[in-house]
Amino acid sequence: MSNNIEEEFTPVNGQAKKERKYIQETFPVNESTFSRLRLSTDGNYATLIATSDRNILTVESLQVILHLDLKIRHMVVEFGNQSFTYADICAEVMGSCVSNDILDLIQYNASNIGALRLTFPWYDSDSKRVPLYLSLGSVKVNEESSVVESAHAIQLYYYLQEGNKPKTDLWLEKFIDMVSNASSAHIQVSYSTSMSLQWEFEETPSSVISLFSITYAIAITFSIASCWRLDNVRTKVWVAWFGVFSTGLSILSGFGALLLLGQPFVMPAASCPFLILGIGIDDMFIMISSWQRTCVMDSVPTRLAHTYKDAAMSITITSLTDALAFFLGFISPFGSVQSFCMYAGICVCFCYLYNITFLGACMALNGHREEGNRHWFTCAVVPVSPAENSNACSICCVGGKYDNVTEKEETEFISHVFEKFYGPFLTHKLIKVLVLVIYLGYLAAGIYGCLILEEGLDIRNLALDDSYLVAYYDDQRQHFSGYSVNVMVAVTQTIEYWNRTEQESLQSCILNFQSLSYVNSTVAWFLSFQQYADANAFDISSEEAFQTHLSQFLQHAPMFRQDINFTADNEIRASRFFIQTLDNVTEKEMMTGIRKTAEECPIKLLVYHPAFIYFDQYTVIVENTIQTVLVAVCVMLVVALLLIPSLLCSLWVAFAVLSVIVGVSGFMALWGVNLDSISMINLVMSIGFSVDFSAHISYSFVSSPKRDPNQKAIDALAHLGSHDINAA
Questions:
Q1: What count of other Cβ atoms lies within 10 Å of the Cβ of residue 440?
Q2: Coiled-coil region(s) at which residues (predicted)?
């Protein structure tokens, strides 16, 4: 099993993953001086958001929050024969657990809130500058003084050490259990942890297995029931049973082969059985339809030969194009899509193999039963006509009728409707025009949807609908949506920070960042160092003075030491600073804009934030989806040209597939579904299903002995119309 969200739903070779590697190698984490700002990953933490319809900065509400904080920090967790609390596993700063700024400001006494004049978004205390926008949400401030008048949400974080994962995971689970009942009359509490989304995603299979089972059972039952005939000899119920069994064998063989070869199984691959069932049953209906068009007076080998002559090419076209479409999907940069396409492609190959061998053999056995005019259940020989005045006998004990004129099995009712009514209706000139108008309307709606289609995976969709994470994400979006991520900007080249020219270049780069509408503020060690030097009247324009006073500054502000990478000669190899972004543009626009600004800087810069790992999907999903679809359509066109003896029909097959993809993509946008790795899997599945119907109909049209195009279309519908309805 491979259910790691980052591995499966982010680009395999995304730019942010390379940036993260550089950050981790150049600026290693100092575990004794924890800094949330400087994390190269999401970290290991628990968090809660306390909300209130009224001002939450009241003594009553803060007392409830402080009591909850006390319970969390003193919560005892059993681990083996030992017990531990938050203090034993917390992330530390100078020997103490990292704390929450808002609680520090009131000195863990709710009564002190009245004496504080909090300013937002930053509060300057005697010892440090506090980013209150990380702690307070839905804040109302005095426009002139920026003093906080009220707030409706407070967010608390509890960061843990990165080591000893079993121990910290146990504490996180205990945190979830305890906080789940923390809401009261004064506050409502939503909560999450660094592992919550991963745990919720891993719960998905068990939550949907019952739905999968019911859906699969319904599909199988319908497939078998649609092959039932009132004629006790001509019924194809056993062929249907073995058709479903053949599909199950292909799924078992495909999954088993890949798992034996070490290919990880991911959750999206669980939808493969539905896809393979559709393809396998579709092929089964084609073979049954072709068998019914053979002469019942012929021998079984002759009937089977005619069946394969009629159906095998059609099945080969669809199976080959399906398999190629899935294997081409393996070029996707997303692990989930790669795994799904590999499983689906191999299963399609096994499905084709079993259908032309095992299912054909089962049809031959069933044909021998029909040849002997034997009952489908008892295998006893039954008369063609019932005895006189015996209604029960006519229902249960007779069979084997056929058309005496054509010497073929009697036409199904649906096929008769297609041949006598729907086909002539569809080929009427006025109806053709109407169909064309409807089709153009559908295409226009699809194209419009494609133009407004949004890309990107909303990670909230990976959690269950009834998950506690839904409330947390809603609260975060409602109360803390003003500010976005705090982006690291690494200076990757060696520069002379004391040199005026180099300083101006770096300053111009910072000004370029700050000129962006979605950048709010900058935190940089060299800016703080300059302020420190100015306040103490230090001259840092020479290398010697710069290094001397920098050493003193880092003793005064040790947190900044993590932002500088020194060589063995005490020279600065690389450094970093931080820019706070606002949530007033899309994530894609923010990330690409910052990266572009960094590239335009005369100094080599690298920008990174852990969220960029997920944001990278925006840069590849559209381009890769278009590439995959176009390559798949081109490959299908080549296969169709090789196997369908008509250039025009081959082009129409490719165009039909392309128009289906446009429609599915467009209506996804109209239904509010984003283009992401999961919906991309559905698009790949759409290619497989759409090529089946279009290729079958086109091949049947070309193979029809009729000369008039309208008659060829009617003949193709009569031949495959009922099959297409059942398969759909």
A1: 10
A2: none
Least Cα distance to 137 among 151, 148, 120, 150 occurs for: 151
DSSP type of residue 358: I
* Beta strands per DSSP E along 545-684: 564-566, 572-582, 605-608
Measured CA to CA, the distance from residue 622 to residue 233 in angstroms comes to 54
Q: Is the pTM of this model over 0.85?
A: no
Structure tokens at 603: 């100094």
Q: Single out the residue of 429, 431, 278, 295 nearest to residue 371, CA to CA.
A: 295
Token pair, residue 530, equals: 């300059």
Is residue 435 helix, strand or coil? Answer: helix
Place of tokens 């004391």: 498
3-state secondary structure of 213: helix
Answer whether 354's CB lies under 8 Å from 246's CB. yes
For residues 103 and 109, give the distance between their C-alpha atoms in angstroms, rounded to a whole number: 8
Cα-atom radius of gyration of the chain, to the nearest Å? 34
Phi then psi for residue 51, to 5 deg, are -125, 160
Residue 498: which of 449, 541, 450 has the closest Cα? 541
In one-letter notation, the amino acid at residue 149 is E
Residues with Cβ within 8 Å of 372's Cβ and at least 6 positions away in sequence, in order, are 381
Alpha-carbon span 117 to 150, nearest angstrom: 11
φ and ψ of 582, to 5 deg: -105, 160
Query: Which DSSP letter does residue 116 get?
Result: -
CA distance 679 to 624: 13
d(CA 238, CA 376) in angstroms, rounded, equals 8
CA angle 716-721-723, nearest 5°? 115
Mean pLDDT per 10-residue interval, the chain, length 728 residues? 84 92 92 90 94 93 94 92 92 90 92 90 82 92 88 95 90 94 89 92 76 81 83 88 92 95 86 85 87 90 92 85 84 86 93 94 93 88 70 68 79 78 89 93 93 81 83 93 92 91 91 93 91 90 90 90 90 93 90 95 94 90 85 80 80 86 91 85 78 78 86 84 69
Q: Omega of the bond prior to 301 within 30 degrees of 0, cis?
A: no
Cα–Cα distance measured from residue 243 to residue 78, given in angstroms and rounded to the nearest whole number:
54
For 493, 527, 555, the CA distances from 576, given in Å and listed in that order, are: 11, 11, 18
What is the separation, in whole angstroms, between the first and last Cα of the chain? 31
DSSP string, 483-546: EEEEEEEEE-S---TTSHHHHHHHHHHHHHHHTSTTEEEEEEHHHHHHHHHHHTT----SHHHH
Contact 133, 121 (CB under 8 A): yes
